[in-house]
Amino acid sequence: MLNFFKKNAALIWAKKHVQKAEEYKKNADKNQEDLLLSLINTAQKTLFGREHDFENIHSVKDFQERVPIADYEDLKPYIERVKRGQANILWTETPEYFAKTSGTTSGSKYIPISKEGMPFQIAGAQSALFHYIAQKNNADFVNGKMIFLQGSPELEEVFGIKTGRLSGIVAHHIPSYLQKNRLPSWKTNTMEDWEAKVDEIIKETEHENMTLISGIPPWLIMYFEKLSEKHGKKIKQLFPNLQLIVTGGVNYEPYRDKMEDLLGGKVDIIQTFPASEGFFAFQDDYTKEGLLLLTNHGIFYEFIPLEEYGKPGARRLTLKEVELHKDYALILTTNSGLWSYSIGDVVRFIDKMPYRILVSGRTKHFTSAFGEHVIAFEVEEAMKATLEKYPAQLTEFHLAPQVNPTEGLPYHEWLIEFEKEPEDLELFRDELDQQLRNRNTYYDDLISGNILQKLHIIKLSKNAFHEYAKSQGKLGGQNKTPRLANDRNIANLLEIYKL
What we know:
Layout: H1 2-26, H2 28-42, H3 47-51, H4 60-66, H5 72-83, E1 97-102, E2 108-113, H6 118-136, E3 145-148, E4 156-158, E5 161-164, H7 166-170, H8 176-179, E6 182-183, H9 186-189, H10 194-205, E7 210-214, H11 217-231, H12 235-238, E8 244-248, H13 256-263, E9 268-275, E10 278-282, E11 291-293, E12 299-305, E13 327-334, E14 341-352, E15 355-362, E16 366-367, E17 374-375, H14 376-389, E18 393-402, E19 411-420, H15 425-439, H16 441-448, E20 456-459, H17 464-471, H18 489-494
Parallel strand pairs: 1-5, 3-6, 3-7, 7-8, 8-9, 19-20
Antiparallel strand pairs: 1-2, 4-5, 9-10, 10-11, 11-15, 12-13, 13-14, 14-15, 16-17, 18-19
């Protein structure tokens, strides 16, 4: 009886939530401008607000004239003051949390999460589930066991501000109605050794009625592979009631074939777009690509055309000014005190009613050693199309330029860990090269003009990416290896695992 009540209550809540959400979807443009002015008004007396003349900002144009695009290094002096416990610096109060992330140039980054901002992190995930339940008209999964993979929920304090990985912070805010069904245990979640942690998660879950599993694709694959190897069965045989996988952090598509093989049966997938800086989007229709941009969650968005990013005079477009199928650097202003902050992600819009996006790459993850500026979305789409024509299974891949080969013209080098190789690797290579040429005219021109030769494929041994991540201290959690780079720093380390 309790299970029946819980399931039906979830259905009622979900349908009410989705109905209410229609309002903000229709009024996204106006809501965004109103939100920005509200944030400006709230932060007028902060140090940042005084330095940037918030008192005289009355429009988006005023804001863009007074507040330049910033990265973490630009905001770091303010954050250092906040870390020392000073209030009224970036936001009116000291943050409720710092989400600690690893940076490349800045070392560890401390991303502030305010008392106002934290609820939206939870609301984004809840909204994703509610949209799924309403569309599916089925909430059976709420009565089974669920994995919410997280970093350690143990938090340290930085001058009285609780600090940790975002996923560990979120663990403290899981709704009470999900707590009883949630796995793994607190003790297991606090483990730092990732391989040992996965082994413990398997022990705690292998005989349970798992109905929802959440995590980034590389972690899910690692968990599913170990389960399958241990029991000699597909995941749907082990968890026949597994209904839903919630994933994010990286594009799911390149992992889809391998995931489907491991699962061995139908499981619905919802993709999400969360980050320490905010919960931005989720797949509101699990049957279609595209993530609904959350325009009423305390974040004002700007978009810089990718080809202009980092250049003087780059245009800063608002939501109503974006075009479909173009790549934009994502810029955020949040109710946690981030102002015109470049998060480093690249998005492209595939719909404007409502606004739906794809995450197409990172501003720092591209290959342009020869002026081609190939981005992650083009690489992933080229691989997806190639796999449709020449079936194979991949664990992971990385693209890097080979500028000074021992002989012949330079080329793009793809380092690929195959789970199952294509029947004819040379045909696979030719198709992959053509698919990338179809998606990037600059690359096509370089091949046609005999500036580059066709791409090369380097086959890597099993677990190559796993071992690489382990060697760099980046195994597990939300860590992921970039799919492409403009140098050979990663490629040179991966070549150790060349077959």
